[in-house]
User: Fold this.
Amino acid sequence: MNDGIVVVTGAAGFVGRALCAHLAALSRAHRGIVRVADHALPGTEQVAIGDLATASDAELAATVAGATAVVHLAGRAHVMRERRADAAARYHAANVVATERLARAARQAGVMRFVLASTIKVHGETTSSGRPFRADDPLAPQDAYGRSKAAAEAALAAACADTPMAPIVLRLPLVYGPRVKGNFLALVDAVARRARLPFAGIANRRDLLYVGNLAHAIVRLLDDPEPPSGPWLVADGEAMSTPELVRHVAAALSIEPHLVKVPVPLLSLGGWLTRRRSMVDRLVSSLEVDAAPLRRRIGVPPFTIEQGLADTAAWWRGRHAI
Assistant:
């Protein structure tokens, strides 16, 4: 399916920029949907729409006109320390309503494949006993964000029912790479300034996903001869503990890590006292995903974790003029 236009929503975002750059490098016709025009997307046709949830039907129709595939990356990401009263409605509008309306417009336009970026959080927050989440596991989201993504998946499935449009859902773990934000950027910053990090005693296992591997997976699924409908779990393929990740980040930055051992119960207590319990839980708990079915379908990811972190470190140095 490499002869039609690929529509990418959230084109100016972290993942969207990487995917558009990948499509441009492949000389693939693509259209980036942005809130406002962005001059940092060379080679990308852009359409500015303020809000997919409230855009007119005509605007949405123009967005997907002539497209053979839609990659829906736009949405409201997980926000820390957000008021529960506000969160549910905001997540529903951005992640469910927008997905449903865009999928209907795509169906009417004759789009053949619709890729939805979802989250591994639809299965829960943690794994245990060395058993990773699998795509056919029951859905058990624990927060408003996870529930909104599960609802978005259901909305896409309903829009595609009894139509030729194939719903492709990618449930993502933490995605990293150039322009990463949030907790991963905070960790890189802490390692770079040689902070003493109390993580040496953590023995968890967490899967990560380099944004370059994600872009590669999306294109491979778009080009698969058989419609790869359904949910897929995506990961680099090498789960690691928090201290192992710190060491890998330090190696990418060419510095020595400063890890100290603090008992996990004390870390958890500190998180509770400082109202950072959810952040600490992510540092000490495990979250593994079984991405083997996707690897069997499209092949192994082209980049190793070391390569992904080296790319991230190079961006970080450029950002800080180092």
Q: What stands out?
A: The mean pLDDT is 93.
